[in-house]
Amino acid sequence: MTARLDDCFSIERLRIAARARLPRPVFDFFDGGAEDEITLRENVTAFQRLRLAPRVLRDVSRVDLAAPFVGTPAALPCAIAPTGAVGFGWRGGDVALARAAAQAGIPYTLSTSATASIEEIADRAPGRLWFQAYILQDKARLADLIRRAGAAGYEALMITVDLPVGGKRERDLAHGLAFPMKLNPRNVLQFARKPAWSLDMLLRRPPAMPSLAGLAPVAADRKAMKSVAGRNYDPAFKLDDLARLRDGWQGRLIVKGVVNALDVDAIVGIGADALVVSNHGGRQLDSGIASLDALADVLAAARGRVPVLLDGGVRRGSDIFKALALGAAGVLTGRATLYGVLAGGHPGACKALEILRDELARTMQLCGADTLAAIDETMLRTTSP
Asked: What residues form the catalytic site here (predicted)?
């Protein structure tokens, strides 16, 4: 395991290692997006359209990657984004990610659809913890989850607002994916090709999703063209409902899934403490704007009233640099750290953060920025699509 991770000197190498150890339906669940996956690809290529214009003759013998991050200093300008069902890719993967975040000095966000409970994460991986709440139709369940997060010491509540209904994830439909995972004629051969993963799931049983326990199991419905996401979520949730959640939560409120500047004033007005520019990693609405392309308008509408974070497409430390240069207060890492934990558990998650940290520090030195505050838009140029 160690030798393999030592060979993973980029996030893409971690992705390849994750793909090698997982059955195809499982890997595709984590790796895939909606429909033609245009938005999934655009999140990445938007960063590639930006070029760096370094400043020279500056002292960059030492660089400082620390800065305030949503009210509290962090060792890196990033947090681990909420990612669901991680334990199906690596047993105990949620705890592994949370521990890696704590050791790196950055926040970790626990997803409603995680395979670890609110209390387990707080007990086994204490650090800066955020809880991401999906808006469940079962409002009593939602209220209880938020109450438990507060009681367990989570400093922030993240409300994801871009998932009124689930997207059409065609990779999941093709595999007939279900949670809990089950064998069917379309995936049995794929599972058989990965006996280590399959035997573990068979002998120890698939992990549960504690926050969703008792809700109806979900499966891809090929006839109705519905994937596994969004089945228990509330499409009627609106601004007034968000305001009531704000009033009932004593910690920081982070609103994730904002890409249109017209929504910013209202969300800031009800008391949000931070915004996350995100299109859900391209997993719900296809042909949506890339997160990086939406950043400038959201920043302009926010007018410095709250920090604006970026989620989606971060695969390199230079991507973090570019987001900061455009004015983001930091980024969330979703697939980048997910590939790490899927490839190698806790050491893999640490490896992913190590790669991003090293690449960000190196990019800062090569661009003439010794602190995060020294990174600005003068160091960027835009290429033609």
From this structure: 280 (proton acceptor)
